[in-house]
User: Fold this.
Amino acid sequence: MKKENSISMMLPVLFGFFIMGFCDVVGITSMHVKEDLLGGFSPEFRDTLSNLIPVALFSMFLIFSVPTGILMNKIGRKKTVLLSNIITIVAMFIPLIDYTFVMSLLAFALLGIANTILQVSLNPLLANVVQGEKLTSSLTAGQFVKAISSFCGPFIAAFAASRLGNWQYIFPIYAVITLISTVWLMATPIHEEIEVGKASSFGSVFGILKDNTILLLFLGIVFVVGVDVGLNTAAPKILMERCGMNSIDAGYGPSMYFAFRTAGAFIGAILLAKYSSAKFFKLITIVAVMALITLIFVTDKLAIFTLFAIIGFSIANVFSIIFSKAIQLRPDKANEISGLMITGVFGGAIIPFIMGLTSDAMGSQVGSVLIILLSALYLLFCAFAVKSGNAES
Assistant:
């Protein structure tokens, strides 16, 4: 494969990771839905209802991860990625057609299906255009592109609100970007071999959880995604509640989190090449727990933004550490474990829903922070419970 051909095929695949980052707009959306559509509901139920937005999105990972792997074996990786893009485009126009609470849930459920399909198929597609030692760095580059997308979301929403007159215009902007990605990928010839082996079933994948260490790591994925989505969802609400910020300005809270999560991923990749991942896992989870404990009490705007940055920086590499530990534990079951870990992303549905119930019950976002803290405490337990080498079953 010529170098120029490799790059020309790699770029449209890497651009797909930008589409993958669209799911992180759930934090901004849940905030605006609460403000725009739930004013007529009793205050003690508004957080619970608005947090159904991430529930609708991330619960799709539980349902569609394994079926996507089966579909990918039949139609190929490129066609599976293109299917996810088509569903994304459809989802992005629903809030413009009918901006109601029910239709918002439908839109984000579709986006969740699309994002599940994309996450399961895009990494393997990248392996079709990048081989050998360059694959690891290319996958890291893809995650960096995804982080940039997450970081840009609040700024695109602010641009849509200030220049276009309505924050909802972020959705057609995303639709156009997805369309560009679709056309670019369609025009790029990528050779791939359709898998002909036995497809994984729900039973074979979830049967791996009989291994106690795999179960521990799977729950780690559930809770780290819960922390990630939970803070993304709660950050603007915390700023509005404690600092009196409006919804647009409060949207920069998630941007601070994502900016430092991006930096943390970049620096973490360097440090993990030199130092033990087990020790690194322990250190960063201790920092995250301490920052979340502090977040319960602070009311100063600068202090809150600083804590968002610290949490984003410290949590950035936890997903990849847990994922790699699970693969190293059972390399003979790498495909099944990969599907299982992606299924664990449904933690982004469970944790925000519990956050909403708790914050409504307490009448404060302190309730949300407490749930995120409990999730981080599990990660701290996981960091010390999982051994460096082959863990015991």
